[in-house]
């Protein structure tokens, strides 16, 4: 009788408190880096944001407005922000640094513990095509996660352009490249190897595709990639990764970084450097990001862009419960001392304290009440000194 729609969740007070604390920490760090927060509607037109988004069509929540237009609940925030930037912001040809904290919606056919509504906190740097902007995304992601209280985490960095160029160079067509890329997205490396062995390729090309799976580890991985790629675009991708490594060292965040050239994303609009964030006790990435230089063309503006999003629910799972909860004071009062209680509560709130006012006639269990709050003040009876029954 009281079931929720598939994939929907309630957020109870303790979790809400933790979420608010973590969210505010992320937002504060992003603001320190000069990012301005923006809001977009929960509902967008299917023909614009819906089709521009990289989310599969069957995962979109669709509905009709009174004029018969198809609407969608926003499935991500990158496409709506690209819409806003292309139509209202990119007039001075200057990079824009925008941030957001918002719920997104993706329908689930089989829930399996996966939410259909979840909150993302993220940033978009629009109008900057430099590798410095990619490095800024990675450094900001690291700084934000640290500020939120996450201690043990790692960013895996890859390059969408490198994978695409390597596969097309060897396989010949984008269709064959996409077919092989699917195994990487599913992290089905056994299936990948079997598929490669079934392809009508020379032994040299087959070996190159199999050796590709070993391109994971430290900075030494970048050097090994040059032995596999032959065309200029692929080599340009490797040079970008080399430049990125120098930027990472300058930010002094190398301890959180690994390279994974097999990394691909379900977000099909990524074109260059991309990354995922992993943390202990969580079986999925808690965040991801990358360069998407072609997305704004769908909204009539040609410019480079990069960004990242952190899944708040997964970040909370990685952090666990907060070490400290915010103390709440309770003032128990009787009718004779109501005004005194109100004045005391007002004074405490002006000091920034959280205060609960509770008429004692509405409390059946005094012990339970005193155990719930960090501090309890009794204003009961004419003098406040009478024993409480």
From TrEMBL:
InterPro entries hit by this protein: aa-tRNA-synth_II (IPR006195), aa-tRNA-synth_II/BPL/LPL (IPR045864), HisRS-like_core (IPR041715), HisRS/HisZ (IPR004516), HisZ (IPR004517), HisZ-C (IPR053846)
Cross-referenced HAMAP family: HisZ
Other comments on record: This function is generally fulfilled by the C-terminal part of HisG, which is missing in some bacteria such as this one.
Annotated Gene Ontology cellular component terms: cytoplasm
GO biological process assignments: histidyl-tRNA aminoacylation; L-histidine biosynthetic process
Protein name: ATP phosphoribosyltransferase regulatory subunit
Superkingdom of origin organism: Bacteria
Classification of source organism: Bacteria, Bacillati, Bacillota, Bacilli, Bacillales
Binding site for L-histidine: 76-78, 106, 120, 124, 269-270
Gene Ontology MF term list: catalytic activity, acting on a protein; glycosyltransferase activity; histidine-tRNA ligase activity
Signal sequence bounds: none
Family: Belongs to the class-II aminoacyl-tRNA synthetase family. HisZ subfamily.
Pfam families in alphabetical order: HisZ-like, tRNA-synt_His
Keywords on record: Amino-acid biosynthesis, Cytoplasm, Glycosyltransferase, Histidine biosynthesis, Transferase
Pathway: Amino-acid biosynthesis; L-histidine biosynthesis; L-histidine from 5-phospho-alpha-D-ribose 1-diphosphate: step 1/9
Subcellular location: Cytoplasm
Record flagged with keyword Nucleotide-binding: no
Organism: Mesobacillus persicus
Subunit structure: Heteromultimer composed of HisG and HisZ subunits.
Function text: Required for the first step of histidine biosynthesis. May allow the feedback regulation of ATP phosphoribosyltransferase activity by histidine.
Domain Aminoacyl-transfer RNA synthetases class-II family profile: 22-327
Coiled coil: none
């Amino acid at each position: 009788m009281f079931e929720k729609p598939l994939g929907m969740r309630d957020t109870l007070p303790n979790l809400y408190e933790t979420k608010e604390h973590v969210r505010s920490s992320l937002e504060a760090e992003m603001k320190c880096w000069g990012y301005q927060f923006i809001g977009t509607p929960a509902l967008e037109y299917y023909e614009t944001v819906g089709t521009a988004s990289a989310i599969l069509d069957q995962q979109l929540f669709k509905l009709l407005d009174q004029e018969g237009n198809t609407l969608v609940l926003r499935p991500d925030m990158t496409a709506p922000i690209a819409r806003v930037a292309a139509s209202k912001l990119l007039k001075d040809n200057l990079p824009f640094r925008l941030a957001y904290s918002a719920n997104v919606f993706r329908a689930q056919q089989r829930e399996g513990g996966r939410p259909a509504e979840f909150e993302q906190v993220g940033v978009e740097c629009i109008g900057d095509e430099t590798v410095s902007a990619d490095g800024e995304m990675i450094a900001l992601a690291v700084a934000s996660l640290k500020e939120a209280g996450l201690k043990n985490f790692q960013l895996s960095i890859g390059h969408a352009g490198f994978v695409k160029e390597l596969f097309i160079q060897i396989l010949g067509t984008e269709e064959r490249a996409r077919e092989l890329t699917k195994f990487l997205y599913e992290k089905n490396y056994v299936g990948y190897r079997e598929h490669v062995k079934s392809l009508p390729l020379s032994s040299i090309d087959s070996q190159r595709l199999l050796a590709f799976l070993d391109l994971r580890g430290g900075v030494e991985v970048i050097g090994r990639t040059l032995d596999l790629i032959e065309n200029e675009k692929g080599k340009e991708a490797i040079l970008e990764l080399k430049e990125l490594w120098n930027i990472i060292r300058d930010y002094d965040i190398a301890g959180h970084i690994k390279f994974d050239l097999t990394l691909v994303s379900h977000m099909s609009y990524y074109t260059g450097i991309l990354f995922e964030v992993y943390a202990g006790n969580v079986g999925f990435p808690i965040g991801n990001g990358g360069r998407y230089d072609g997305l704004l063309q769908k909204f009539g503006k040609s410019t480079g862009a990069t960004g990242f999003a952190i899944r708040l629910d997964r970040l909370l799972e990685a952090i666990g419960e907060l070490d400290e909860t915010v103390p709440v004071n309770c003032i128990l009062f009787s009718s004779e001392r109501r005004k005194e209680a109100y004045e005391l509560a007002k004074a405490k709130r002006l000091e920034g304290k959280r205060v609960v006012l509770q008429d004692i006639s509405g409390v059946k269990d005094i012990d339970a009440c005193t155990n719930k709050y960090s501090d309890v003040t009794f204003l009961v009876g004419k003098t406040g000194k009478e024993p409480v029954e």
